[in-house]
Design a protein that fits this description.
Elements: H1 2-9, E1 13-17, E2 21-26, E3 30-36, E4 39-42, E5 47-48, E6 54-55, H2 57-62, E7 70-73, E8 76-77, E9 80-81, H3 84-98, E10 109-113, H4 119-131, E11 137-141, H5 142-149, E12 160-165, E13 170-176, E14 179-186, H6 190-205, E15 207-208, H7 211-221, H8 229-232, E16 235-242, E17 248-254, H9 255-261, H10 263-278, H11 282-291, E18 293-296, H12 305-313, E19 317-319, H13 326-336, H14 338-341, E20 345-347
Parallel strand pairs: 1-10, 10-11, 12-18, 18-19
Antiparallel strand pairs: 1-2, 2-3, 4-5, 4-6, 4-7, 8-9, 11-20, 12-13, 13-14, 15-16, 16-17
Helix pairs in contact: 3-4, 5-13, 6-7
């Protein structure tokens, strides 16, 4: 009886712990926190610059504009916790913002995790979450969460395919009868696309830009296939530093040039899709031809990516309407129907 009373007071929550963004969803409310996964750090002490930390949107606004004594860092890299202490600071801030606790009770949480994590890397998530004030911690694969959030009928005896392109990794999986038939995780995503743009401009134009500028270029001009004529002629002036003279330089860039810069990471994602299809039976592939592929994650918003995948694989692709929040919403679905989806969840030790 006491356990049931505690459950009424404690509020569960689902967390999509992403390399670039963290989203928290609450039962009955949906996504209530959606902020960048960044923390402002004092270089001298290698810790957050205040006790409660400068985290999320505020820290992101500081990026590239801080003095030498402060840097803005991501506690996660390619879906893996790189700094447990900073991740704890970040999660505590987001937890307080979501305000899921009542009367001092620690909330039960379900956190999305990359499919390529080792047991040691999973333990880092458990440890950070417990130290941030969370109670029982459970992990759910990002691909499962994204599939549930995108509305794929993964429990039915038909194939469903999800391609989740995050900032640090891409998860490709085919589901049937509630389980994974074939899956592949590669550490290629939005960050690698941005780095490819930075490298391409340096090699071809002798122009040095930062990753934040490259991200803006990808979002504004990036495309995987030729866009309609009206938009393909668009160009944007990019500002950077001339490598030869170390002086400011302005350069007009077109969609076609950015598309060339993105060729290598896109081919890596396509190779992973082909590898997963190769691991499926002919009957399941036939299902996919009928049902298509669902794309989600921030990288799925790249212009013409769905059309490009269809041209290269022969399987129709569509971007989920909730591409950015699919994993968080899917984790919430799993949390609200935990008895039905318990086989998908890995439960950690109790609170520390």
């Amino acid at each position: 009886m006491l356990r049931n009373f505690s459950a009424l007071l404690r509020r569960d929550l689902a967390i999509d712990l992403g390399t670039a963004s963290t989203r928290i969803a609450l039962p009955g409310e949906g996504v209530v926190v959606d902020e960048p996964s960044v923390v402002a750090v004092s270089r001298s002490a290698n810790r957050a610059i205040s006790r409660n930390g400068v985290v999320g949107h505020l820290a992101r606004q500081m990026q590239g504009r801080t003095p030498d004594s402060v840097s803005v860092v991501r506690p996660l890299s390619a879906g893996v916790i790189a700094d447990v202490d900073l991740c704890e600071t970040m999660l505590r801030y987001f937890l307080n913002k979501a305000r899921p606790t009542r009367y001092g009770l620690r909330p039960r949480v379900l956190i999305t995790a990359s499919g390529c994590l080792t047991q040691v890397e999973k333990q880092a998530i458990y440890r950070s979450a417990h130290r941030a004030g969370m109670g029982q911690v459970m992990l759910l694969g990002v691909a499962h969460a994204a599939a549930l959030g995108a509305g794929l009928p993964i429990a039915e005896p038909v194939a469903g395919m999800i391609v989740d392109i995050g900032a640090g990794a891409t998860e490709v999986a085919v589901f049937s009868m509630g389980d994974v038939v074939a899956q592949r995780t590669i550490r290629v995503g939005g960050d690698q696309m941005d780095s490819a743009i930075v490298d391409w401009l340096r090699r071809n134009h002798g122009l040095r830009i930062g990753n934040s500028t490259a991200e803006e270029l990808r979002q504004e001009l990036g495309s995987a296939s030729t866009m309609p004529e009206s938009s393909s002629r668009r160009s944007v002036d990019v500002r950077g530093v001339d490598i030869a003279t170390s002086l400011p330089k302005r350069l007009p860039l077109t969609q076609a040039e950015i598309r060339d810069a993105l060729a290598d990471p896109l081919e890596a994602i396509l190779d992973s899709i082909r590898a997963v299809l190769d691991g499926c039976s002919p009957d399941l592939v036939a299902d996919l031809v009928d049902r298509g592929v669902v794309l989600c994650g921030g990288g799925a918003l790249l212009g013409g990516l769905d059309r490009w995948i269809e041209e290269r694989t022969g399987i129709a692709a569509q971007v989920a309407p909730n591409a950015l929040t699919a994993a968080a919403e899917g984790a919430l679905v799993c949390l609200e129907c935990l008895d039905a989806w318990r086989n998908l969840v890995e439960i950690g030790d109790g609170a520390i």
